[in-house]
Amino acid sequence: MIAAIQFDARLIGEAASLARTYSELLQRLPSTIHAFILVELQKWPMLFGAEQRYQRALLQVLSRFAEDELADAVSGIARIETEARLDTIATRDPVRFQDEAQAHLRKQQRVQAWRTEVDRFFQAVDPAIEAQLYPADAPRRLVVQIYGSNIAVQTDKLWSRFKRSGMRIPLALDAGGSSEGFLRALFGTNARDETTPALFSAVKNAGGLDAVDTWIVESHEALHELCGGNTVPLTGISFDRLRTYRDELTRALYDKIKSGVESPQAFAAYARTLKIAPETNALLSSTEIVRSLVRDVFLTGNGTLFVNNTFVEWTAVQALRRAQPRLLITRFGVRDKLKPFSSLLLFSQPRTSDRIPLIEDPVGSFVDVEQLAYYVWLNAEKNAAYRRKTLYLFLAEGIDEMLAIRSDLDGSPSTVAPRATLADVCATMAQWLGVSSQEIGGRAIPVLVT
Amino acid sequence: MIPIPTLRRRDAIRVLAACMADWFMPRRLFAQGRSASRKPDRRVIVVTFGGGVRYEDTLAPQGWINIPHLANELVPQGLVYPVAHYEGLTGHFNSTGALVTGCRQDVDAYGSEAPVTPTIFELFRKAHGLLPDEAWVIATNKSFSLMGGSKLRAFGDPFAANVVLPKQLLIETIKSAVSTNAGPGVEDRQALAEQMLSALDEGYEGFGWRVFESGRPLRAELKATLAKSLLDYFNDPTVPTSGDELTFFMTKEIMNRLAPSLLVVNFWDIDIAHYGAYSLYLEAIRRTDRLVYELWQHAQSLPQYRDRTTLLVVPELGRDGDVAGNGFANHRSGDESCRRVWLVALGAGVPKGAGTERPIRTFDVAPTVAQILGFKMPESEGKPLVELAF
What we know:
The complex is a heterodimer of chains A (450) and B (390). Chain A has 450 residues and is α/β, with parallel strands linked by helices. In chain A, helix 9 runs parallel beside helix 16. Chain A is globular. Chain B is an alpha/beta fold and 390 residues long. In chain B, strands 1, 2, 3, 4, 5, 6, 7, 8 and 9 form a 9-stranded mixed beta sheet that branches. In chain B, helix 1 packs across helix 6 and helix 9 packs parallel to helix 10. The longest helix of chain B has 24 residues. The chains are: A alpha/beta (450), B alpha/beta (390). At the A-B interface, helix 11, helix 12, helix 14 and helix 15 of A face helix 1, helix 7 and helix 10 of B.
């Protein structure tokens, strides 16, 4: 292994304390892993609790490795670093080191080999980290995915990606005619506080869950309007509510394009310097870290500036990966059709007769969200925090059936569930999360909670 | 300021076309540039499902619905290789670079560097002593301006293909038109140009990077005429425009006017998959399928191509699988889905209604083209497709 690089990370607070505690270990790691950990520590105030817990656990687990065991685990990465002469990199700034190391690896066509070795390293350490962070008795999690009522659902193809998973449960939709009625019935009405759906009240009253544990991510605003009182701790992100922010970002990026951009990398570097933030009232729980997540989604998620459902999927996946909420609700909607570019060949103030209106694409949206909802589920199941601990519910507004998948059960339950009301679904969600369902009125669906 | 009446699109285009009058040259000028010597009798058109498609979304049985023309019309006329692999870096420039060189390429993913081994265009032109108009790259992907020739001293610009990026040509045309003070509505024309730039300047993986200048630009009169025809085409309000429709139109124009022996056509609308809209990705696949079919029909309608043309249709790469990769929106995992493609050959020298399970590699495309057009491909990692008659 090449001689350890003395990085100058300029850490403060708990991050500095961690670096000091594990300084000897860090020196024994290959430079790229060492730099990665320091860069994460530099971001400490902007990491979600789950991310901080992972970094602590990573250092703890690595510190328990015997010397030869650790040397063996990192030998592949160390070999590639030596071959790529990363020791010739002069900088001591871990961020710059990462950039220059990647450039070295790219130039010498060793990126793929390095990535393979890094994957191998984390495959060796992750089981121990996951056992520490996510024991079998860790709290249950709930992911609810809803298709908005304007999506042209084809019932014969609905949730077709899950043909062999979970169970279909017939629903009785007494009050579910409109989106609002459906969502109110699904999340329950609270007699004492009409502005807060019963499920969220129950979650709040149970205590122990703060805003970072409960997320709603949606293309439009129906869920936000449902929780309009903002009386419960909740992180809420809506594509529509971020319109002003999206417009400002798009304008800034396009101005940069017009002035000339050398490469996508240069463009991304410019984007990182932008100091544009969402308006405070555009988000529920508008903390700095959530604003930062939203900004990262727009800047790194292809299509998220333009396609609402893509934004929902990217944001949900980032939330699952980074914040690991116990309750995540996504609501997809109808996206607009993309205009053919000849339709833009109009003068700056086109006459009304020349103007091409925005047209919604409810049929295409159904095809999109089938895939995107599947990807949210796939990404959750790739994450140890959710694997074997999560109930997934898929609902489409106005459709008298839902799909339920319990990740702690192998295969589909053999029983056929009787017809349930949305209040029953609400009670099921409450019971699954371990919060009181007394005010909800419905009865939990036994096959999903026992 | 004098108020300027608002113009309709057709009027606007007419103004632009008029502003370009000084560019326009009569068609007969092309006759001067035509190559007469040692032009082979055979023609080859290579069409890519650029951007990358997954086997499961196309040639797998569940994907046939997305490629009805290939599945029902073209495959029965030709030979299908359902198992083809791409083994290089999974970016657009390097994967198409591998198709045109027969070698894996590891150059800048966004097109600032030419391929490092000789292309089929250079080897073809050098071997037969042909003029540039015999070999063309027509590409929707704006990063492909250096795809026509390698950076090798013995080859490069003097032997490279003509490269035309129809969307960029349209942008340049509009920019040129609005830069004059002639004609009405300077302010409006500026606004028009800005709107067009934003509409045409898309890149689905991130937008805004540079279009690199080709070392050997098109002849001025040739470029002007192609630009003029492009504007005329755009002037038709019934045209359902997309980048690939422009590329298709430009390919037909070049075939009609110059009848080159070797064309590589890059369709790229499929890369809209990066926007995460599965339906738009499938729609682009269907459009590409239709355009490939119409291109083949067009070739059959031209005496210079009928019965002497071999068409090779191949995706430049796959896209990530759902489980092992990152899903259809990306092509960066390097998983099997990202590398598994297919190839359909038809026309001259191709057995009809055949298929072979023999696995091939996309590196095999270049030496196959070489074999058909009669030149050597010494550095290729691939081998000619032996099922074809040369």
